[in-house]
Design goal:
The complex is a heterodimer of chains A (282) and B (141). Chain A is α/β, with parallel strands linked by helices. Chain A has helices spanning 2-10, 28-40, 49-53, 65-75, 127-138, 207-210, 228-239, 245-255, 259-263, and strands spanning 16-22, 25-27, 41-47, 90-93, 96-99, 103-108, 118-120. Chain A contains nine helices and seven strands; from the N terminus they run H-E-E-H-E-H-H-E-E-E-E-H-H-H-H-H. The radius of gyration of chain A is 22 Å and the shape is globular. The model of chain A has no long low-confidence stretch (mean pLDDT 92). Chain B has 141 residues and is of the alpha/beta class. In chain B, strand 3, helix 3 (78-95) and strand 4 form a beta-alpha-beta unit. In chain B, helix 1 packs across helix 4 (112-129). The mean pLDDT of chain B is 95. The chains are: A alpha/beta (282), B alpha/beta (141). Chains A and B meet through strand 6, helix 7, helix 8 and helix 9 of A and helix 2, helix 3 and helix 5 of B.
């Protein structure tokens, strides 16, 4: 909203103590807004998975802009658009030329555009993490720049079911959550349900697991891990217990039809590749 | 134009079979393309998917993972792990539009000639696909 923007523009640089910014960068307008906020703020905190890693909307990076627009405005089953109108960045109205924010080629996490001081992970961030971040910031007890609030250990470390996890997990049979009645007192991985707890940052208190759902990785990777999806993929491939290529391939086809969606659910824009390669070679 | 595109290929070769096989090609004076940059690892099971992606992002036009034939792993089961990781990684790479850029091949210590053939095939395959320029393409607006 323009009046808010001009209010912020009138403020002195560095006059906002802390800006919490949520959401990934999808439009040219987002870039403009976050650059403005960065200029006016002493501390910038990326709030939630989208700002931190790109988030679920980041999966749009698997498609080109024209594919996205064609689907959203013409092909989606709930769309009624007989004239086939699609949005454009500028439009000539009788009153003059109108401009809309431009859609960027890829969704980006916040720190691709501006310098970010801290990260609050989570989709959505859990109250305990938000409180911890606020307490630290208000008391002036600030952690080193770049800190991701949350645990520095994997989720399994704080999960109550960890004690029921066998020494070695090898799975012949994978299950998706809707195909099994989970025993809520036993490690989900041991029951054949793919849980990303072992590669995901802890700190959430294993809320999903307490609610009967495996971890899907919203807190993102641990420190020093560059690519969450590759980590998760590697770990899952290691526990699939088939030495026969055909059998391994069959179980992967059947239970992991969408590895990008599984392993990069929250983090595709913060991964090494960032999305679908769009180059045509020569 | 005019100048032939010379692909940059990163090869991960396991210490016990594939690297020895490549070495054999060398001492037997079997010709293979100079496009390969060979990285010796103790086991193909050590080749993390992250390493493959990083090679592509950092400028490789293709990545070739090589290991012992199934049943021959020095560490008993390392190459089975490689196989499963590769199957899953290949599926992911398909979604990322990079499937054609990565291959897994089994090369034993006695297969110098096979190495030369695999390397030549892969280099020619990547040459046909053209330069990847992954970082450049993915950071374009």
């Amino acid at each position: 909203m323009d009046f808010k923007k001009s209010d912020v523009e009138k403020m002195k640089d560095n006059s906002i103590d802390v800006a919490f910014i949520n959401g990934g960068i999808r439009l040219s307008e987002h870039e403009e807004m976050v650059r403005l906020l960065r200029r006016k703020s002493k501390v910038v905190v990326a709030f939630g998975s989208c700002a931190h890693l790109g988030g679920i909307p980041g999966l749009a990076n698997l498609y080109s802009t024209s594919e996205l627009i064609t689907y959203a405005f013409r092909e989606a089953p709930t769309v009624v658009n007989p004239d086939g109108v699609t949005p454009t960045a500028s439009y000539k109205a009788p009153e003059g030329e109108l401009e809309l924010p431009r859609i960027l080629k890829y969704v980006k996490p916040l720190d691709d555009v501006i310098d970010v001081d801290y990260y609050i992970p989570g989709c959505a961030p859990t109250p305990n993490i938000i409180k911890k971040a606020l307490d630290d910031i208000l008391s002036g007890n600030l952690p080193p720049k770049g800190t991701v609030f949350g645990s520095s250990r994997a989720l399994c470390d704080e999960c109550e079911l960890n004690k029921t996890k066998p020494e070695k997990i090898l799975l012949k049979d994978l299950k998706r959550v809707h195909q099994v009645k989970l025993d809520l007192s036993k490690c989900y991985l041991a029951q054949g349900v793919l849980c990303l707890g072992p590669v995901t940052r802890g700190g959430c208190g294993a809320l999903c697991i307490k609610g009967g759902m495996p971890c899907t990785g919203c807190f993102g990777p641990l420190d020093n891990v560059k690519d969450f999806g590759a980590r998760a993929l590697s770990f899952i491939a290691s526990i699939i217990d088939y030495d026969d290529e055909k059998l391994a391939e069959r179980i992967i086809e059947e239970y992991l039809p969408d590895p990008a969606g599984w392993f990069y659910r929250y983090s595709l824009p913060r991964s090494l590749v960032k999305g679908r390669y769009s180059g045509g070679g020569k | 134009m005019g100048e032939r595109f010379e692909p940059r290929i990163v090869v991960f070769a396991c210490n016990w079979c594939s690297y020895a096989g490549i070495d054999l090609a060398g001492v037997s004076r079997i010709k293979y393309p100079h496009n390969v940059r060979i990285v010796k690892v103790m086991c193909s099971g050590r080749v993390h998917p992250e390493m493959v992606l990083k090679a592509l992002v950092d400028g490789a036009d293709g990545v070739l993972i090589t290991g012992c034939h199934p049943g021959d792993c020095h560490y008993i089961s390392g190459n089975y792990k490689t196989m499963r990781r590769y199957l899953l990684l290949r599926k992911l790479l398909r979604q990322l539009g990079l499937e054609e850029r990565v291959r897994l091949e089994w090369i034993s210590a006695s297969e110098g000639d096979r190495w030369a053939k695999v390397a030549t095939d892969f280099v020619e395959h990547i040459r046909r696909l053209g330069p990847l320029r992954l970082k450049e393409v993915m950071s374009a607006e």
